[in-house]
Design goal:
The structure holds three protein chains of three kinds. By secondary structure, chain A is mainly alpha-helical. In chain A, about 75% of the residues lie in helices and about 0% in strands. By secondary structure, chain B is an all-alpha fold. In chain B, helix 1 runs antiparallel to helix 2 and helix 2 runs antiparallel to helix 3. The chains are: A mainly alpha, B mainly alpha, C mainly alpha. Chains in contact: A-B, B-C.
């Protein structure tokens, strides 16, 4: 029998994968993708609870999260393109102008 | 039974492709596996009777956001980054952080497991109150109207931001 | 579960799947013949005539040829994605037929979010093109893939938004109920089809649908004269055939959607004996789709290709505002009445 617990475990696993991706990778595209993974993990939890509590609120929130993800991807990819024009790299360790 | 099979299939696809996303050297492969993950998550939504969100997930995420990713990847050269070192030096911090995160989540789930092991029930009243899309639409345009409008402003800001960031600079500006 | 596998419900479902899938695949193959023949007539040529009467066996000969051709994989290609790309483009194209109502009963499944399902599934088609173009590791395919991804994202917006007006009138996302909502008539003989209520939406839909399926005058993704064949330059044999099939399947899907949303789907006059009444809806539906396909082919043979900047300007500066204005106007009318 599939319970809410199962879905929360799946969400936790995906979220952890996303966190590890953000913390360890150097390629900015993969970091952005890991952030998408984390947002999906959150959405799984929201919808699992929406189903558990028989309320549609969780689904509405999931739609907002997807909206934010779209905005984030648009701005993030804009930054990537601007960055690539300046430094010809996708490696975040080389983006250190603001470092002191 | 069918529910269980579906959950484990989609869950396994999501987790395995998720791991492949963050371990592949080639960014295009990562993007392809991210597509698989997003698709599997849409399947998970379907098993939770959230048809509308599943549709939105595929249309917006797989059909929109991920295409943008792939588009940008093709726009900027990928060949060089394949042969670079893929992981940064902070893996110890990463390991500690994720270990803490896992412990935290495990503790939270352990504390709340009694309330969570009950399977979610689908009362017939929910089905009678109109389909899933109608329910989501009603909630979105009544109780959550203000957040909805704010989200639209956020999208507008994001559009302007993306255009400004990626547009070509004229010589006068430089 | 094992009881279900032997029940009559399951048998009926299987028969429906076989009939629809077989019919669609056969139709797709013969669309190539229709296209060649119609285009030839427009250009005052005879078209295929050698294989069988009126060249009717030509598609079968073509299929055999595809089957026996050498399957070339370029040396520098990314093997996995190169092989996956045709599959990725064909499967979504065929999946969308599972919710299209070919008649009141001839539908595999009537999803409550059928329209959403079709848009979700067709939005995946771009991956076949993008991955195929990228994996070929060659100049023209990459350019074709980039053009096509930009084009498909741009026109998908107006395609989806053009439908919203129809949805507001019909109040449903299920394709069968969309058809049902157009059953009534005005004055007893004018069918109450959505095209009369939403003419602007229909125009936007048709233009974006042509762009979405990468057909002339919007076929910048493959434009033979500039990019050889665009994203499938490097493909040969069955993989090429799969791309072609996917293109025709997408064409049929958007035509079927246009029929369902704007032309009353399978509705039409029912006359004659019992068996004819059962078969006529499917006949009406297929003939309406055929009219759209005919229109597609005529477009291809008469209108020259857009330039890339014209295409982008048209999509973002004309079609998108127009579809938004249409939604606004429709919602006003719906709110008042």
């Amino acid at each position: 029998m599939v319970t809410t617990f199962h879905y929360l475990l799946l969400g936790a696993a995906l979220f952890t994968i996303g966190v590890i991706g953000v913390l360890t990778r150097r390629n900015i595209m993969i970091i952005l993708m890991s952030i998408e993974l984390m947002m999906n993990a959150v959405n799984i939890n929201l919808i699992a609870f929406s189903n558990r509590l028989q309320q549609v609120t969780g689904q509405v929130f999931a739609i907002f999260v997807i909206t934010v993800a779209a905005a984030e991807a648009a701005v993030g990819l804009g930054i990537v393109i601007a960055m690539f024009k300046n430094k010809e790299t996708m490696n975040i360790n080389e983006i250190d102008l603001m470092k002191w | 039974m069918l529910e269980l099979i579906l959950f484990y299939t989609f869950g396994a696809i999501a987790v395995i492709s998720g791991i492949l996303v963050i371990t592949r050297h080639n960014v295009v492969h990562s993007a392809a596996f991210l597509g698989a993950t997003l698709f599997a998550v849409a399947g998970i939504f379907l098993t939770l009777h959230a048809e509308f969100v599943a549709g939105v997930q595929v249309i917006v995420y797989v059909g929109g956001i991920l295409v943008l990713f792939v588009f940008v990847i093709m726009l900027i050269a990928v060949e060089r980054s394949v042969h670079e070192r893929q992981y940064n030096k902070q893996w110890t911090i990463a390991l500690i952080t994720s270990a803490i995160l896992i412990v935290e989540i495990a503790y939270g789930l352990y504390r709340g497991r009694d309330s969570l092991v009950l399977p979610a029930v689908v009362p017939p009243a929910a089905a009678a109150a109109g389909g899933n899309s109608e329910q989501v639409g009603t909630a979105l345009y009544t109780s959550y109207l203000l957040p909805f409008e704010i989200a639209s402003i956020l999208l507008l800001v994001a559009i302007v931001g993306a255009v400004v960031l990626s547009k070509k600079r004229t010589p006068a500006e430089e | 579960m094992s009881e279900y596998l032997t029940s009559s419900d399951f048998m009926i479902l299987m028969i429906k799947i076989i009939v629809i899938f077989g019919g669609v695949m056969g139709a797709l193959v013969y669309l190539t013949w229709i296209e060649r023949k119609v285009m030839a007539r427009v250009q005052m040529r005879p078209g295929p005539t050698r294989v069988g009467p009126f060249g009717l066996l030509q598609p079968i000969a073509d299929g055999l040829k595809f089957l026996f051709k050498e399957d070339v994989v370029p040396a520098n290609a990314n093997r996995f994605l190169y092989i996956a790309a045709p599959v990725v483009s064909l499967i979504p194209a065929l999946l969308s037929f599972s919710v299209i109502p070919f008649g009141p009963w001839l539908q595999v499944t009537d999803l409550s979010v059928g329209l959403l399902f079709i848009f979700a599934i067709t939005s995946l088609g771009v991956y076949g093109i993008v991955l195929g173009g990228w994996a070929s590791n060659s100049k023209y395919p990459l350019m074709g893939a980039m053009r096509s991804s930009a084009q498909m994202i741009s026109y998908e917006l107006s395609l989806t938004l053009s439908v919203v007006g129809v949805l507001m009138i019909a109040n449903t996302l299920s394709l069968n109920q969309l058809v049902m909502s157009q059953q009534r008539t005005w004055l007893g003989f004018i069918p109450r089809w959505n095209i009369f209520l939403q003419p602007v939406a229909f125009l936007i839909y048709v233009v974006s649908a042509v762009a979405e399926t990468n057909r002339l005058p919007f076929d910048l993704a493959e434009s033979e004269q500039e990019l050889v064949a665009g994203w499938h330059t490097e493909y040969s044999s069955l993989k090429f055939a799969m791309f072609m099939l996917a293109e025709y399947a997408n064409m049929v899907t958007v035509s079927a959607l246009a029929t369902i949303m704007f032309f009353g789907g399978w509705s039409g006059p029912l006359v004659g004996p019992h068996w004819l009444k059962a078969a006529l809806p499917t006949f009406w539906f297929v003939s309406k789709i055929f009219l759209f396909i005919f229109f597609y082919v005529l477009l291809r043979s008469t209108i020259p290709r857009f330039r890339y900047d014209q295409l982008m300007n048209f999509g973002w500066k004309v079609l998108l505002p127009l579809s938004l204005a249409n939604i606004l106007a429709t919602s006003f009318v719906v709110a008042i009445s």
